[in-house]
Amino acid sequence: MATATMGTRVPTQEIRQKKVWSWSQPWVYLVALVAVGVAVGPVLWVVLGGARTNPQFLTDPAGLPNPWNWGNYADILGGQFAQRFWGQLWTSSLIAIATTAGVVILGTSVAYAIARFPMRGTGALFSVFAAGLMFPATVGILPTWIIINEIGLVGNPLGVIIPQVAFALPTTVVILTPFVKAIPNEIEEAASIDGATRTSFFFRILLPLARPGMVTVGVLAFVGSWNSYMLPLFVLGAGGAPAHQHTLPLGVQMFTTQFSASMTSIMAFSSLALIPALVFFFTMQKYIVNGLAGAVKG
Amino acid sequence: MSTNVEVGEPRADTARGSSPALRPSKRKVRWFEVAGFTVPALVVYVAFVFVPIGFGVVMSLHDGSRIAPLNNFVGLDNFINIFTGGRMFGQPFFWDAVRNNFLIAILSLLLQGPIAIGIALLLNRKMKFRGIVRMLIFVPWIVSEVITGVMFQMLLMPNGAIAVWLERIGLGSIAGTQWLADIGTGGLTSVTFWTVMAVLTWKYIGMAIILFLAGLSGIPDELTEAAQIDGASWWQIQRKITLPLLGPTVRIWAFLSIIGSFQLFDMIWILTRANPTIVGMDTMATYMVQVGMSRDRVGYGSAIAVVLFVITLIVALTYQRFILNRDIGKES
Predict the structure, then answer these.
(1) pLDDT tens per residue, range B100-130
(2) What is the CA radius of gyration of chain A?
(3) Does residue A211 lie in a domain region?
(4) Which domain, by its residues, includes B196?
(5) Quick one: pLDDT at residue B75?
(6) Alpha carbon distance B201, A42 (integer Å)
(7) Which of A32, A265, B5, B117 has its CA 20 to 30 A from that of A125?
(8) What is the average pLDDT score of chain A?
(9) How far apart are CA B175 and CA B165, in angstroms?
(10) A169 is in which domain, residue-wise?
(11) How close, in Å, is residue B241 to chain A by CA atoms?
């Protein structure tokens, strides 16, 4: 489908470019340049700031590193802050990957049941999950904290993972159910003629077919988990987990409070905490954009 | 396995004259399959969404602590205190927080909406480097709230980078502004409030742009081409065709933005160094965390959460009733 529309679009775009709109091109580029500068400038400032020394920073906070000094970055990657940084990178990755896996596995299986099981109650099941959209995680944070404390998961990554999965399920089910419904019934009929049970159909045929939808919800869950601050603050921060078991956002905030005198170390730490997210974003950008668009249309 | 299929619904199958195996949707569902697919998700979901919410409501009727959340039943006293309580024990008026939430919600729409529509229209045009520009404009959206907050704290320091740049471009008179500590006479006269608004705009406008671009890509090229052939200028096309068709997307973005504004916590917490009260930047969520976590009054904090939920729900339902309703006919 996509290729078909592409085919018709290309020539019309060429016509349009020739005919109108060429007069404003310099302005378009100027506005785009300003927008990009505003968006990226502060981030660049932090990354470059990490390559400066504190005296350099204090004499000219807006300047460039002169000379370049990699000490701050070295301290974090292999020096006194290494255990903290790598520990937090590991914790953040563990929590984000486990959350994503949990959301995708549980969400897809429920969406399959809702979309395809011929029985009463699937509509009600959908409503139960859709109702969860009304309860943002913020509202449930205090009782969640106490429950996590009661079952002994405070300070444990699981105490962050499980509530994150639970609160991400409503969005996931709401996005995935129409997606599974759209997979033609004939495929399932054909599979069952070949002797596939529902379970084997799910694993061998539905999962590969539903992959784009799963990637979308997975990417959203991953980004949400990677950047989340409130739940880790309660479960890990207030729960008394040692610094190297914090997530990166929590770690950056704690680092800032603890080493507030060394601005350039804070900048280096923030930059390094930022890189994994940026790399993930640039590789997954297509899915993120599609996912957000789909979440709105669906 | 196949015997299970045969006994599915024999009558319907014979009536239709097709073999049972051809009609999987009529196949009997086995209980362990149903259970296998739904129970794990339901258990996690009910135990960690519904149970906490219910527990929170019960806690809000007590004045308990983290260790003993259900101690000291006080009925509706917490709620009465929220709405009538003054600055006793340094607690802010709840209404300050509510006012901040509403101001942030409204100003987010007014600031981000027009800028985002403008940038989205721009990026929707054919131009060189469009892919790279799109990607870079979304960078703030991927930077976590914490890093954004820490970054702007440092940029906005007294004698910090922003101050130096302002002086360099000849705005030395405002370079000495205490961006994060000048609250004026509160409300909209507070420099801090506008600084926070600016940071929020920087962080969340990328989300609006992504959504608007998705909406724009759904508008068929034929429409604008037809208008062009009829001699419409670029501005006329945008005003008369693109913007009205983008309406549904804008309304959904506004909905998400409003809900987000009411839940706002991270950015305020970081920008004010976990002490929003001093600079008059409390939101309902930061107030809840201060009371519930920092002061260990989880009952009172839960009551705030309940009020936050009810206010959000009322706003959401009102918005849906009066604004989103317009789109329902069109979209389906």
Answers:
(1) 999 999 999 999 999 999 888 888 877 777 7
(2) 24
(3) yes
(4) 94-331
(5) 82
(6) 14
(7) B5
(8) 83
(9) 8
(10) 89-257+274-297
(11) 16
Are B214 and A289 in contact (CB < 8 Å)?
Answer: yes
Locate tokens 């709105």: which residue? A296
Answer whether B221 touches A (CB < 8 Å): yes
**Are residues B230 and B292 part of one domain?**
yes
CB pair distance less than 8 Å for A36 and B136: yes
Nearest chain B CA: its distance from A77 CA (Å): 18
Q: Name the closest residue on chain B to residue A150, using Cα atoms.
A: B67
Q: Which chain B positions have a beta carbon within 8 Å of A42's beta carbon?
A: 151-152, 155, 202
> In this structure, is residue B81 part of a structural domain?
no
State the helix-helix crossing angle for B191-217 and B243-263, rounded to 10 degrees: 140
- Comparing CA positions, the residue from A100, A42, A83 lying closest to residue B147 is A42
* Total number of domains constituting chain A: 1
- CATH number reported for the structural domain that contains residue A128 in this entry: 1.10.3720.10
Query: Has residue B131 been placed in a domain?
Result: yes
How many DSSP H helices and E strands does chain B contain? 19, 0
Q: Exposed (0-12), middle (13-18) or buried (19+): which is B40, by Cβ within 10 Å?
A: middle
Q: CA A32 to CA A15: how far, in whole Å?
A: 23
pLDDT tens column, A88-147: 999 999 999 999 999 999 999 999 888 887 777 778 888 888 888 888 888 899 999 999
CATH number, domain at B113? Answer: 1.10.3720.10
- ipTM surpassing 0.90: no
| pLDDT of B332 above 70 | no
Number of domains in chain B: 2
In a domain, A72, yes or no: no
- B47 plus B124 within the same structural domain: no
